[in-house]
Write a structure and sequence with these properties.
Elements: H1 8-26, H2 32-54, E1 65-70, H3 80-87, H4 90-93, E2 96-101, H5 108-115, E3 120-124, H6 125-133, E4 138-145, E5 150-154, E6 169-172, H7 176-188, E7 197-200, H8 205-210, E8 216-221, H9 225-231, E9 237-240, E10 252-257, H10 258-263, H11 265-284, H12 286-296, H13 302-312, H14 329-341
Parallel strand pairs: 1-2, 1-3, 6-7, 6-8
Antiparallel strand pairs: 3-10, 4-10, 5-8, 5-9
Helix pairs in contact: 1-2, 3-11, 3-12, 11-12, 12-13
Amino acid sequence: MRDIDPSNGSRRELLRKATSFIGVIVSVKDHPMIRSLAIASTFAACAALTACGAKQDVVTTPTQRTVSVILDRSANANHVGLYTAEASGEFAKVGLNVKFINPSNPSEPLELLQSGGADLAISYEPELLIERDKGAPILAVGAIAQRPLTSLMSVDDKAVDPRKLEGAKIGTSGLAFQDAFLDQILSASGVDTTSVKKVDVGFDLTRAMTSKRVDATLGAFWNIEGVELRQAKKRPRIMPVDRAGVPPYDELVLAARNETVSRNGAMIRRFVGALQRGTRAAKADPAAATATLRSAAPKLSKREAVATVTATLPLLFPAARKPFGWQEPSQWQTFADWMKRNELLATPVDSAQAFTNEFLPGEGLGSDTTP
């Protein structure tokens, strides 16, 4: 029996013959014992034949593939869709066993991605453009946060107006684009950039401000550190960089190596689709999403988690009925041209080479049609 795997048609034929055989046996009137045994054996054979064929209808779970994703920083509200997708099983449903990596410093995500230490990375559009300008074979495959979050920020009502930062001590995360943004913003405001002292404070932007180590920072997010500082009654002053002369851009993007895009596009498509469903679930049930986020970031108080998730969820969806993760081509080109004009990039950029919408839900060849 183990070698029999009949089609539905073959099973019907075998069962027809078995039933006919029962009719022949029933006609044997002189040997009732033989007749009874034969009928029982035939029914058992029919059941076994049916079971052999039924294995075609078994639905199997997709083979699980481990995918490592390095975050831009430790778990926060910007990652609520990622953690919700993991906790709700959306990644597992499409055969992905996702492992999140917390970076040790702000420059690590794209470095680890390029070295092959991660399959995907959460990074920043300007940082990705700068790395590509240096020859890095990477590109963005989807937007996570759809607008600038990086801000000039200070506490205790200290000045954050660029025109009043002459001679100030300003902290950054040490990322090249943040230093470049700061120089451009100060110069456009008529401030001598050589009078300003830049301090690399890594991820410790909030403490750098509250401890008065610096007068202000450029690098804190208005929806994360800004909200947390308000919750702590530190009276922050906040100016998002797109209010200080920087064109709009996608703050957080999902990045991959060119090689991964070429060879493992199906994995990227499944990942983005699962992330879409996880982010929608977070929007539909913010309380559950907040609890999931706090499981990933136990030091985050419930009050702060609720406030930052509330501020962040609207940023994770594109406007104008575009697909989830949409990267607007004209915006990317405008921003890349601005970076080149301000000498943040050495060479002109064809932004179409720096990102792709191919793997978003409803986009590209072989895609599903979920809007």
